[in-house]
Amino acid sequence: MGELTARGAPPKQDRSRATRQRLLESAVTCLAERGWSGSTVTVVAEHAGVSRGAAQHHFPTREDLFTAAVEYVAEERSAALRDLPAPGSTHAAVEQIVALYTGPLFRAALQLWVAASYEPQLGPRVGALESRIGRETHRMAVGLLGADEREPGVRETVQGLLDMARGLGLANLLSDDSARRSRVVAQWARVLDDVLGR
Nearest CA to 177 among 101, 74, 117, 112? Predict the structure, then answer.
């Protein structure tokens, strides 16, 4: 926590940082719950409890706000996963990876992908962001699995796991898919154990 000013309030820089974080978190929530068309800077500012002017001070455009929001939460999620103790089994690692694609961040990212497909000013930004997040997620999955990508087929199998996890996230959007998902996770853990020679 930052030092207090003479009046007992946090310094301006700390307040600014806190406002920015509230805006980013609210942007992800709004995008996941309301979609692209229902998530304006005004809606996000109201959700965050800040003025529209404060929101635009931090993020001059809607595209700036939403790409920064997805990037922020993806980085927070990656940091939290890196700090987790190593999973005790391949099954636990697969569950952690699949969980990345079944929460509000995935919903928000999906809304951003759809918007990027028809919003020309958003497409290149989201493409570059997703490419970077994809590489980081792949590295994280390799680490969680303790996989050696120098072995034939391991890299492709890890990428297949990520593609499968994304598909499970899509299946979960319209209804609770947890029963089927648990069977698929168990099967993928067995496949990975075979590929990884366990």
Answer: 101
| Ranges of the chain whose pLDDT falls below 50 | 1-2, 4
Domains and CATH numbers, the chain: 12-195 (1.10.357.10)
pLDDT at 101: 85
Give the number of other CB atoms < 10 A from CB of residue 164.
19
Residue (of 102, 96, 124) closest to 112 by Cα position: 124
Distance CA 117, CA 191 (A): 34
CA distances from 108 to 23, 38, 105, 124 (A): 14, 12, 5, 17
Question: Is the distance from CB of 120 to CB of 58 less than 8 angstroms?
Answer: no
The answer to whether the pTM exceeds 0.85 is: no
Residues 6+ positions from 99 with CB-CB distance below 8 Å: none
